[in-house]
Amino acid sequence: MNLSIRIETTGGPEVMQLVETPLPAPGPGEIQLRHEAIGLNFIDVYHRSGLYRVPLPGGLGSEGAGVVTALGPGVAGFAVGDRIAYAGGPLGAYSERRNLPARHAVKLPPEIPAETAAAMMLKGMTAYYLLHLTFAVRPGHTILVHAAAGGVGSVLVPWARHLGARVIGTAGSADKARLARAAGCNEVILYREQDVAAAVKEFTSGQGVDVVYDSVGKDTFAGSLDSLRRRGLLVSFGNASGKVPPIEPVLLSDKGSLFLTRPKLADYVATREELTAAAAALFGAIAEGVVQATIGQRYPLREVAQAHADLEARRTTGTTLLTV
Ligand SMILES: NC(=O)c1ccc[n+]([C@@H]2O[C@H](COP(=O)([O-])OP(=O)(O)OC[C@H]3O[C@@H](n4cnc5c(N)ncnc54)[C@H](OP(=O)(O)O)[C@@H]3O)[C@@H](O)[C@H]2O)c1
Q: Is the beta carbon of 153 within 6 A of some atom in ligand 1?
């Protein structure tokens, strides 16, 4: 038997039920794995709440690390006993054991612990593509990173500094501002108290930043546009405060011929080559000490409702693990 989290319907944290069910043998192209650690992500909240559509009834969770326990027909490149990690694929990471299409898994280098991988695969590959592919951050760039003390923020900030950028972060409290500075932010704006665009203009002699990484969405979108330099880029990659309402394209013209993109990880790791390149970049950055897992809190799988409540109430810092 296998413990996992299942939802019959979308809603609050209480819709997540711990169930014990048999786990079928892995199907064609699938590996079966035993989780050693599971990553919690804000996208799990969107899936649970219904902001993003999910198959129902079904499982939750997109990130984990563990050991391969069985191979389905036709799987090549993996063996029983391999240490693997993944970010994406069918939902179902909130479980002791699961089946996963092998194409979503990568083998873990021996020096990377399972907890580090579960904390960083999704957030770290996201930081990689945002800083290298969505916009190529270079020395001389000034960037704005919202929620800099959060899961993605705590990887994005040191990596951007390593690439030579000056990083302005935002944080929701003085304690989080301290963490954001420790992660590498040159400046931190307390965005629940301060006018973000005005503070950014002050830090940049009225110019604005080259790129804004905005995962907060509804509450920060307008201020993000107003923080950009002429022809700057707004990377709107999340909606922790709610979905951004529709805008007229001419607004981008009025505010200085701005660029706007709304990327997601799945489109940057869609092929096996893209996935292995992103994972290799992340593992390299971890090995070189450019980024590290800032595990702010751990919850047993059976306490996942509390983990979601804390993430949504902005009580978490860094990344969050579910333990099995
Ligand atoms: N598009 C992609 O490829 C991609 C991939 C990964 C993650 N994401 C997005 O990146 C964001 C961060 O994900 P994460 O898992 O690392 O979460 P997280 O940053 O650890 O948590 C979200 C943070 O957002 C801030 N926030 C601001 N307003 C909020 C509100 N009304 N409700 C809740 N939080 C609010 C909070 O920090 P403060 O207290 O400092 O304000 C909170 O801690 C999410 O929006 C996620 O969807 C996107």
A: yes
Alpha helices in 191-230 (DSSP H): 196-203, 221-225
Whole-number Cα distances in Å, 278 to 3, 19, 38, 75, 322: 31, 34, 19, 22, 24
Cα(44)–Cα(214) distance, rounded to whole angstroms? Answer: 18
128's CB contacts (< 8 A; 6+ apart) are: 159, 278, 281, 282, 285
Please report which confidence band the pLDDT of residue 137 belongs to, taking 50, 70 and 90 as the band edges.
Answer: very high
**Ligand 1 pocket check for 171: Cβ under 6 Å:** yes
The finding on whether 26 has its CB within 6 A of some atom of ligand 1 is no
Taking Cα atoms as reference points, which of 165, 174, 168 lies closest to residue 220?
168
What confidence tens digit (pLDDT) does each residue in 216-246 have? 999 999 999 999 999 999 999 999 999 999 9
pLDDT digit string, tens, across residues 282-318: 999 999 999 999 999 999 999 999 999 999 999 999 9
pTM of the model: 0.98
Ligand 1 atom closest to the CA of 241, numbered from 1: 31
Choosing from 63, 152, 275, 297 the residue with most ligand 1 atoms within 8 A of its CB, the one to mutate for a pocket test is 152
CA–CA separation, 317 vs 159, rounded Å? 18
Answer whether 243 contacts ligand 1 (Cβ < 6 A). Answer: no
All structural domains of the chain: 2-121+272-323 (3.90.180.10), 139-262 (3.40.50.720)
Which three-class secondary structure state does DSSP give residue 269?
coil
Nearest CA to ligand 1 atom 35: 240
